[in-house]
């Protein structure tokens, strides 16, 4: 099995995927693993006022409670520290970046992922 190999999914070892709770039991159940997959990049997308920021901050709060270092790449320059705190985010420990362009946001995200 090397680069470019094709194999059956059933031939691979299955590993449990650790998850971070979203803070919503219903959503955690719907996601099938108890939350969002830990160690993966997750894009939260939706129309304006659909709860993207609230969901993101809730997940950050849960991750911080579990001892994780968290970052918020605020492309909209709209992060409200008071609201984040009310959702349980430790804003003093939160890493925040407010890039000017989408390209900068991707570069910052890449740097954060590579730095572990």
UniProtKB/TrEMBL annotation:
MF GO annotations: ATP binding; ATP-dependent DNA damage sensor activity; single-stranded DNA binding
Tree of life domain: Bacteria
Signal peptide: none
Pfam families on file: RecA_N
GO cellular component term of the entry, any: cytosol
Alphabetized Gene3D superfamilies for the sequence: P-loop containing nucleotide triphosphate hydrolases
Record keywords, A-Z: ATP-binding, DNA damage, DNA recombination, DNA repair, DNA-binding, Nucleotide-binding
GO biological process, one term: DNA repair
Domain RecA family profile: 16-116
Similarity comment: Belongs to the RecA family.
Protein name, per record: Protein RecA
Gene: recA
């Amino acid at each position: 099995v090397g680069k470019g190999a094709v194999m059956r999914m059933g031939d691979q070892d299955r590993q449990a995927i650790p998850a971070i709770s979203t803070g919503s039991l219903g959503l955690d159940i719907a996601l099938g693993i108890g939350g969002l997959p830990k160690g993966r990049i997750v894009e939260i997308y939706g129309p304006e006022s659909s709860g993207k920021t609230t969901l993101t901050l809730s997940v950050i709060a849960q991750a911080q409670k579990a001892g994780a270092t968290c970052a918020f790449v605020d492309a909209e320059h709209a992060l409200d520290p008071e609201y984040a705190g009310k959702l349980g985010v430790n804003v003093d420990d939160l890493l925040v970046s407010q890039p000017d362009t989408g390209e900068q946001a991707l570069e910052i995200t890449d740097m954060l992922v590579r730095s572990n």
